[in-house]
Specification:
The complex is a heterodimer. By secondary structure, chain A is mostly helical. Chain A has one domain: Ferritin, core subunit, four-helix bundle (Ferritin), CATH 1.20.1260.10. In chain A, 65% of the residues lie in helices and 0% in strands. In chain A, helix 3 packs antiparallel against helix 7. Chain B is mainly α. Helices cover 58% and strands 0% of the residues of chain B. In chain B, helix 1 runs antiparallel to helix 2. The longest helix of chain B is centred in the N-terminal third of the chain and has 27 residues. The radius of gyration of chain B is 16 Å and the shape is elongated. The N and C termini of chain B lie close together (11 Å). Classes of the chains: A mainly alpha, B mainly alpha. The interface between A and B is medium-sized, with 30 and 28 residues.
Amino acid sequence: MWLYEKKLQYPVRIKKPNPQMAMYILSQFGGPDGELAASLRYLSQRHHMPIPEAKAMLNDIGTEELAHFEMIGAMVHQLMKNASLEQIKAAGAGTWYTDHDRATWPGTGTGVPFTASYIMSKGDPIADLYEDLAAEQKARATYEHLIDLADDPDVIDPLRWLREREVVHFQRFGEILMKLQEHRDRKHVF
Amino acid sequence: MTGLRESLLNQIRAVEFATLELNLFLNSHPDNQHALRDYNNHVRQLMALKNEYERNFGPLINFGFGYSRCPWQWINDPWPWEYDSGRGY
């Protein structure tokens, strides 16, 4: 089972509302390379991993992604919470306000809902690890795009931290891929 | 009180970040004795910090993983996603 620890993995303290930045960051909440997709991808794939190292890594990184999902949710919430209607309209977030007020919802800022078709669980451990390596690179690139779009240090700081986690996860998944290849090439004689 | 709470949370975050990183590293390097020693040392620090936090502010993890005084402290604000610069948390 999972337990909830009542703290963010890394602090999010945004003082200035910014509905436009909230709309951009929503992609990492419920978008194609977002944290929810990452978590569900790894927590689905862990079941068919043939070696203990791979089971543990997908389980634990899938769990850490939920902590990142929580951080992104906190960022969107804090960017929207005290935004005025004038700010929301000027940011082009009026269509979001129509459906969600200032709420956080797993979809992109353009209203595309989260879908499981963003992820795959193929049942082939090596094919799945290649997907995971690509996913970490795509998430890293997304964070770089978000950092390019941001100008508030309160927003940039957690984004930079999250970007670094993608780099570490890529490294760990690379080590697991090598172990899976060794496992595949080993002779299985009974 | 808010100052102590934030300071303890930051210390917990720092040590738990080390244990999490070492945990992921050990998943792919289970025979690395240096990393394992480092992990176990950080676990000891983390437990001490969590105990201190829970004595002052109630459970950090619910479902039986921390004690509560009366009234039930788990529901106390602020929740992790909440930040209000005016209120200082």
